[in-house]
Amino acid sequence: MACSRTCSRILGLSLGTTALFAAAANTVLLFPNWDVTYLLRGLIGRHAMLGSGLWGGGLMVFTAATLISLMGWRYGCFSKSGPCRSMLTVLLSSGLALLGALICFITSGVALKDGPFCMFDVSSFNQTQAWKYGYPFKDLHTSLLQILLVVIHFISSFLGLFCSLCGK
């Protein structure tokens, strides 16, 4: 049980850190050059506008990371909870984090496939230059680390649940 608690402490802090980075990265995408006019004029890519780095990889993962870390430290309302309740809470938290990380990962993958939303030259041969906003590289993984950490923690929690039950 102690190994599982130590793992919860470390992975909770690691997940919390990656969640903050995901939210910060999505915020930077919404405000290029820290200028709000791109957002107001609708010149932000649809993948950044979804905000999956804020609510998926950020808020959902951070919430789960906080619960996982609190369980590892046995803090607050978790200080007197039994091992089954603790492990169930950690497993549910890991599921929430996995869902948030997957949403962010899929959105990021699609965004990488579509390429950046930017102004590019659409003029054809022997014509004047014409510029438009769009996805010039439409036919071409940031939250992979979060998914890896969550899967490791999920396996650790799952084993901790069964090992603690077998120990009794």
Automatic annotation (TrEMBL):
<keyword id="KW-1133">Transmembrane helix</keyword>
<feature type="transmembrane region" description="Helical">
    <location>
        <begin position="144"/>
        <end position="167"/>
    </location>
</feature>
<dbReference type="InterPro" id="IPR008661">
    <property type="entry name" value="L6_membrane"/>
</dbReference>
<keyword id="KW-0472">Membrane</keyword>
<feature type="transmembrane region" description="Helical">
    <location>
        <begin position="54"/>
        <end position="76"/>
    </location>
</feature>
<protein>
    <submittedName>
        <fullName>Transmembrane 4 L6 family member 19 isoform X2</fullName>
    </submittedName>
</protein>
<dbReference type="Pfam" id="PF05805">
    <property type="entry name" value="L6_membrane"/>
</dbReference>
<comment type="similarity">
    <text>Belongs to the L6 tetraspanin family.</text>
</comment>
<keyword id="KW-0812">Transmembrane</keyword>
<feature type="transmembrane region" description="Helical">
    <location>
        <begin position="88"/>
        <end position="112"/>
    </location>
</feature>
<dbReference type="GO" id="GO:0016020">
    <property type="term" value="C:membrane"/>
</dbReference>
